[in-house]
Design a protein that fits this description.
By secondary structure, this protein is an alpha/beta fold. It folds into 2 domains: 2-108 and 277-294, 2-Layer Sandwich (Nucleotidyltransferase, domain 5), CATH 3.30.420.40; 121-274, ATPase, nucleotide binding domain (Nucleotidyltransferase, domain 5, 2-Layer Sandwich), CATH 3.30.420. The protein has 9 helices and 12 strands. Helix 7 packs across helix 8. The chain is globular. The structure holds zinc ion. Residues 157, 167, 169, 171, 174 line the site of zinc ion.
Length: 295
Amino acid sequence: MQILTFDIGGTLIKSAMYDENLGLLDCYEHEYPRAGVEGVLAILRQEIRKNEKDFDAIGISTAGLVDAEKGEIIFCSDAIPGYTGTLLKAILESETRHPVFIMNDVNAAALGEGAFGSGKDFKNYVCLTYGTSIGGAIVIDDKIYGGKSGYAGEIGHIVTHLGGKHCVCGRKGCYTEYASVTALLNKCRAIDYRIRDGFDIFANFENPHIKAEIDMWIDEVVHGLTTVCHIFDPEAIILGGGIMKEKYLTDEISRKLRKDVMPGYENVAVLPAALGNKAGLMGAAENVLRHLKND
Ligand SMILES: [Zn+2]
């Protein structure tokens, strides 16, 4: 059996083919030929046509809030105009006559990390992704915990600063406004306007002003993780996002978190994500296998 997978993001779409042991057969990155949902469908249809005789099911990891049951994009920001409301599963199943399984990208990455990456030794863990915002996924007994509607895990919108900065969600003081990589970048750019990304931040690690900003940012990261530990008592917290490859960050987050939590919670493992930008694709393939096994 072969599974065609897609990871749909705001700036590009990745596609990959996996065999039933989740061995990677090939993988591509596609830039949007045109903006919005039409661009998404154009790339998906092109890859489906190209691989027409070679796959048995489709797995999709996508940006936005997803109703996995219906396979509908319930909400997506302006990153992909017109995407909200798209019945992706129904469209692709009617066009290909193959089963299609869709899930949110952060949940897919968590499933991928659990099957093949940093989560493989754990049954109960929380994955957080730090980038322009903060994504979260909760895994309980080896399954994604979706809550009542499948939307659980919006850890970026825990309020960590009462009456704090305005957030895109319309509320004030959310974790993402203080602990995303964007928040750290804004602070560091005020010190050196040439800093563009996480790589530049750590290239300036010896600058004591930058180092101080990194350490204050770690405190913000830990502040939210302490709440996560107290609610879920996870075996592990897995930290995703390119910046978390910096060993200083995971070491310091782990050290400070263990000091910050109440007694009894301090054995939580803190690990960087292992699969990088393939986590979503692998999770999408794993999601297909789990569905087909249960049918
Ligand atoms: Zn918010």
